[in-house]
């Protein structure tokens, strides 16, 4: 079975799921088994808030443990056997792809031995046969090739939790010399927004509330706080577009494909006055994971069912 996983700073994404990348460890069984991974004698509740930013995701075992949780969720969703072999398809930003490819593959692969764990009380015996790594952002084009059809040059803007990865495609091929990674992801936007609300109206709003208002969804909240959050969303968008222009991309000359968890926020805050050439927005934050899986399926002669 092929399983695509997008290991984000803010969330872990698979073809069917997106859950926060936070993880909390317990020595004893926690109050609920929901989203709980039992591995090597410890219990880990996965998807609780977000973990501290790691410059190197391989610094500890958190992303490996979250990978096991993601595998279990996909197996259950697809109705597959809990004892099986899987091939993982994951991604890295193109800017650091060559540097991180080998160590990240080894980090996820570990060994060809069975990995035994429980997730939500169900025992799993998994053999990770292989790990294939693909460029983030570009993999989404495997799902939506129509976006670059008849376009000689396109900018891919993958708006993640911590970084915004930029890459220009010329005639459908990534131009490696144009890759940039900006530390302007949604975590920065949310943290600065919460601080502004505290400063102006003295309220401590949550990440979830800020996300919901930024996405234009209904949420019970003080109207002054809501107005500040909406204003911060526009300021973040202006800052991001300005940073992209400063990185050498003329957004008034070439179309932009936006994807990632922050794409919906930016879409809702782009206005006519920005004068952008053309914007395509992929709202579903699971599109990278689905793209990884689609490409791996093409390599191995088939696409996983489910």
From TrEMBL:
Name of the featured protein: ParM/StbA family protein
Species per Swiss-Prot/TrEMBL record: Massiliimalia timonensis
Actin-like protein N-terminal domain boundaries: 4-138
InterPro entries: ALP_N (IPR040607), ATPase_NBD (IPR043129)
A Pfam family this chain is assigned to: ALP_N
SUPFAM superfamilies, per the entry: Actin-like ATPase domain
CDD domains named among the record's database cross-references: ASKHA_NBD_ParM-like
């Amino acid at each position: 079975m092929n399983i695509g996983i997008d290991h984000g700073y803010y969330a872990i994404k698979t073809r069917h799921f997106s859950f926060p990348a936070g993880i909390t460890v317990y020595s004893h069984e926690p109050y609920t088994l929901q989203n709980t991974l039992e591995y090597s004698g410890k219990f880990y509740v996965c998807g609780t808030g977000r973990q501290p930013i790691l410059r190197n995701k391989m610094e500890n075992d958190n992303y490996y443990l979250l990978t096991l949780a993601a595998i279990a969720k996909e197996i259950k969703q697809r109705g597959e056997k809990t004892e099986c072999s899987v091939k993982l398809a994951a991604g890295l930003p193109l800017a650091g792809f060559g540097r991180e490819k080998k160590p990240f593959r080894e980090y996820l692969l570990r060994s060809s031995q069975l990995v035994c764990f429980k997730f939500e009380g169900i025992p799993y015996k998994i053999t990770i046969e292989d790990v294939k790594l693909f460029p983030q952002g570009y993999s989404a084009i495997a799902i939506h090739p129509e976006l670059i059809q008849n376009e000689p040059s396109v900018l891919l803007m993958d708006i993640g939790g911590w970084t915004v990865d930029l890459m220009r495609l010329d005639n459908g091929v990534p131009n490696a010399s144009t890759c940039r990674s900006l530390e302007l992801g949604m975590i920065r936007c949310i943290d600065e927004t919460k601080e502004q609300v505290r400063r102006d109206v003295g309220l401590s709003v949550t990440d979830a509330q800020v996300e919901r208002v930024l996405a234009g969804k209904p949420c019970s909240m003080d109207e002054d706080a809501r107005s500040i959050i909406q204003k911060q969303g526009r300021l973040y968008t202006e800052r991001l577009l300005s940073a992209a222009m400063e990185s050498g991309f003329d957004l008034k000359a070439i179309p932009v494909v936006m994807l990632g968890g922050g794409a919906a926020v930016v879409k809702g805050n782009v206005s006519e006055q920005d004068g952008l050439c053309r914007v395509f927005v992929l709202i579903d934050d699971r599109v990278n994971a689905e793209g990884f899986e689609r490409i791996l399926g093409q390599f191995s002669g088939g696409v996983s069912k489910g």
